[in-house]
Specification:
CATH superfamily of the largest domain: DsrEFH-like
Number of helices: 6
CATH class of the largest domain: Alpha Beta
Radius of gyration: 21 Å
Distance between the termini: 60 Å
Helix content: 40-55%
Number of strands: 5
Shape: globular
Strand content: 15-25%
C-alpha cells in the first residue's frame, strides 16, 4: 500500500510539472514575428499586415517586424495610392494607413535598401516610420531563435 501511495504521488508530481511548463513559457513572453513581404499585390499585403498587426502585435508578441522587399517596396511609397480590397474598402483604409497604424502600435517596418534603389525610391519617398533596413538589422531578427518567420 505504501509503495502504491508513493507511485501515485510521483505520477501526480510529474503530471503537475508537465502542465506547468507551458504556463511558464507564456509568462516569459511570446516569440516575435518577422514577416517577409515581397509582393505589391494589395490583397496579399493587406492580409500580411493584418496578420502581423492584429494577430501578433496586438496579442503581445514582440518584436513584430515587416520586411518590405522586391516589389513590396512600392507599398510604403507615400505618393502611390493603393487599391483597397473587400472590408478595407468599406472603411477607406489603404495599405499606407495599415502600415502607419502598425508602426504607431509598436510594429517595425523595414525597407530593403537594394530593392528601394532598384525601384528608384529613397527613404524620403516612404511614409513616416519606415526604416531603411540593413543586413545587421534583418540578420538580428531573422536568426533570432525567439522570432518566427512568415513569408507572403
Amino acid at each position: 500500500m505504501k509503495r502504491l501511495a508513493t507511485t501515485l504521488a510521483a505520477i501526480t508530481i510529474a503530471a503537475a510539472s508537465l502542465t506547468a511548463a507551458p504556463v511558464l513559457a507564456q509568462e516569459e513572453g511570446k516569440p516575435g514575428l518577422f514577416v517577409n513581404l515581397t509582393t505589391d499585390d494589395t490583397w496579399s499585403a493587406a492580409k500580411a499586415i493584418m496578420f502581423a498587426h492584429d494577430k501578433a502585435l496586438k496579442n503581445g508578441h514582440e518584436p513584430v517586424a515587416i520586411w518590405l522587399n522586391v516589389r513590396a517596396v512600392y507599398l510604403a511609397d507615400k505618393k502611390r495610392p493603393s487599391h483597397i480590397h473587400g472590408l478595407m474598402a468599406e472603411n477607406g483604409i489603404s495599405i499606407q494607413d495599415m502600415l502607419t497604424a502598425f508602426i504607431a502600435d509598436g510594429g517595425q517596418v523595414f525597407m530593403c535598401s537594394a530593392c528601394s534603389k532598384a525601384a528608384g525610391l529613397t527613404e524620403a519617398d516612404y511614409i513616416d516610420g519606415v526604416t531603411m533596413g540593413t543586413w545587421p538589422v534583418v540578420e538580428g531578427l531573422l536568426f533570432d531563435p525567439d522570432v518566427k518567420t512568415l513569408a507572403w
